[in-house]
């Protein structure tokens, strides 16, 4: 007679789990926005710092590379450092998302939108 209530109980559990997941994803978003990664090029002569979400926040250039004749080399080093920081940001995001999915008991390799 009350079989229908069992389905409602399952639905309530699913809704609670979805809300919990939404809260954890929001916390992850906040963490990624404040976690910093640093990319380097030229053996550390150029360093680019970005959030784990990929937003560039700082650029540090050793003054020894400033030579007008080396302009293209400097530009390449800057771009390489930025690219390295962005790659590290993507890796950090994937790592943190993987941790969250494992913590929540979701299948390995399940990509969550971040």
UniProtKB/TrEMBL annotation:
Regions of biased composition (Basic and acidic residues) lie at: 90-102
Subcellular location(s) of the protein: Cytoplasm, Nucleoid
Assigned keywords, A-Z: Cytoplasm, DNA-binding
Pfam families from the xrefs? Answer: YbaB_DNA_bd
User: According to its record, what are the GO cellular component terms?
Assistant: bacterial nucleoid; cytosol
Main location class: cytoplasm
Which residues, by range, are in coiled-coil regions?
none
Region Disordered: start and end of each range? 90-114
Q: InterPro entries this protein is in?
A: YbaB-like_sf (IPR036894), YbaB/EbfC (IPR004401)
GO MF annotations for this entry?
A: DNA binding
Q: Quaternary state and partners of this protein?
A: Homodimer.
NCBIfam families assigned to the protein according to its UniProt record, in alphabetical order: DNA_YbaB_EbfC (TIGR00103)
Q: What is this protein for, i.e. what is its function? A: Binds to DNA and alters its conformation. May be involved in regulation of gene expression, nucleoid organization and DNA protection.
Protein name as annotated: Nucleoid-associated protein EV662_101507
Q: What does the organism's lineage look like at the top?
A: Bacteria, Pseudomonadati, Pseudomonadota, Alphaproteobacteria, Rhodobacterales
């Amino acid at each position: 007679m009350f079989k229908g209530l069992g389905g409602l109980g399952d639905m309530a559990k699913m809704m609670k789990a979805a809300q919990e997941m939404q809260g954890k994803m929001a916390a992850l978003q906040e963490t990624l926005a404040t976690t910093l990664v640093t990319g380097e090029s030229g053996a550390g002569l150029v360093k680019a710092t970005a959030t784990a979400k990929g937003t560039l926040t700082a650029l540090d250039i050793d003054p020894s590379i400033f030579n007008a004749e080396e302009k293209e080399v400097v530009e390449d080093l800057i771009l390489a450092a930025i690219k390295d920081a962005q790659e590290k940001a993507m890796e950090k995001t994937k790592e943190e998302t993987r941790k969250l999915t494992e913590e929540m008991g979701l299948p390995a390799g399940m990509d969550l939108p971040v």
